[in-house]
Design brief:
With 146 residues, this protein is of the alpha+beta class. It is 36% helix and 11% strand.
Length: 146
């Protein structure tokens, strides 16, 4: 019965803290962990603790190189090693932008309210959720109302 909800826009399980809708009770229970300070998954190699087992697994793979994953992709400009191409590409854009050919230079994303620009759409979204952006947005709305 739960599987059928994956094909609809129904989210019958609601978080009683923030109201987020989930398709399954399992997903809801996993989500509820963001509202608690419990970190029951502990790294045996360092003092870091995690809310979810997946966070610990990713930490072990990327920091302690445990779990079979290896850094096998290198930056052609500085030889830094990466696990995946997305991380390598982001590194090249941030650290070696001036060395990239024009056809590999990413777009610049610009905030419509201020002079903020960045090379990553995700950073623009973070900026747009920031208090600084919200204050400018509120000020602009007020000025249009006057």
């Amino acid at each position: 019965m739960t599987h059928n909800w994956t094909h609809t826009q129904e989210f019958p399980f609601r978080c009683d803290v923030c109201g987020l809708g989930c398709r399954s009770e399992h997903t809801l229970n996993r989500h509820k962990m963001v509202h608690t300070d419990e970190r029951n998954f502990i790294c045996e190699h360092c003092p870091i603790r995690f809310r979810r087992e997946g966070g610990l697994k990713r930490h072990l793979e990327t920091i302690h190189l445990i779990g079979g994953r290896t850094k096998n992709l290198s930056c052609e400009f500085c030889s830094k090693m990466f696990w995946d191409d997305t991380a390598r590409q982001r590194h090249k854009v941030l650290m070696h932008r001036e060395q990239l050919p024009l056809d590999q230079t990413p777009l610049e994303y610009t905030c419509v309210l201020c002079e903020y620009t960045c090379h990553d759409k995700g950073y623009l979204r973070i900026h747009q959720k920031s208090r600084r952006h919200k204050e400018k947005e509120t000020a602009e709305v007020r000025s249009k109302q006057q």
